[in-house]
Amino acid sequence: MSLRLDHIVITVSDLKTAFDDYKSLGFNPIQGGEHANGITQNVLVIFEDGSYLELIAWKRPDEGMRWSDTYHADGEGFIDHALLPGDIVEVVKGAQARGLDISDPMDGGRLRPDGERLVWKTARSPGSDVPFLCGDVTPRRLRVQEDAEIRRQPNGVTGVAEITVGVRDVAASAKRYAALIGGEAPSDVVTATVLGTPARTVSLTLSGGTKVTLAEPTASGTLADLIEARGQGPVAVAYKGGKPGELDLAKTHKARMAIV
Question: What pLDDT band is residue 187 in, cutting at 50, 70 and 90?
Fold first, then answer.
């Protein structure tokens, strides 16, 4: 069994500014609405392959919530990524049976600007080296619109080719990630340079073809600094489609992105 990439979460300080900046980069952002907690709101960029970016902002701190604590301590940037389960209850049971410390599913939701109320369930491990699960209760098409005009990006991007996740122990994180998605943990460790930092890496492939590279820094550098400041989690994303090149870090709100 494997799971698809559902979405990637980026913390921002102001949604209107982030909306305008992503639009200037050739993306097609849309208003997402307010979450059921009444504390966060979001903007979405939905791709043709069904994955999306979530730009999230806080009305006030949500103390004890990792995303909020990280944002209020370190500011904008990548904070997490989610996978899409078919049956979240069964996927969680399987991951737990394989030894992953993932919670039972919890209710969540969002109110869209048009009044449509969305309901989903999420399940998380305390360790941010692995993604959380986001399974829909209401139809996914309400959360992730299927309109071709919404999903068409003027810059030509059609989806996520690769997501790089900064981790502290690449072997341990590979086992945890494999326990979540099912299958054997990759054992081939490759020495590489990630964000200008020497690193040990392993790679997995999600359903749908998105590559996940887990990267453990072996020396000081940007990768090590990001893990120190923001914890384990996404540090870079590569998109498929469009004109190759790196995107302006100021416009992406400190989220390192490139089109490949």
Answer: confident
Residues 42-65: pLDDT tens digits? 999 999 999 999 999 999 999 999
* pTM given for the model: 0.97
DSSP-derived 3-state class of residue 66: helix
Burial 163-187 (b: 16+ CB within 10 A, else e): bbbbbeebbebbbbbbbbbeeeebe
Give percent above pLDDT 70 in the chain.
Answer: 100
Architecture of domain 4-150: Roll (3.10)
Q: Assign domain 152-259 to a CATH class.
A: alpha beta
142 φ, ψ (degrees, to nearest 5): -80, -35
Which position has the token pair 């993932």? 102
DSSP-derived letter for residue 207 is B
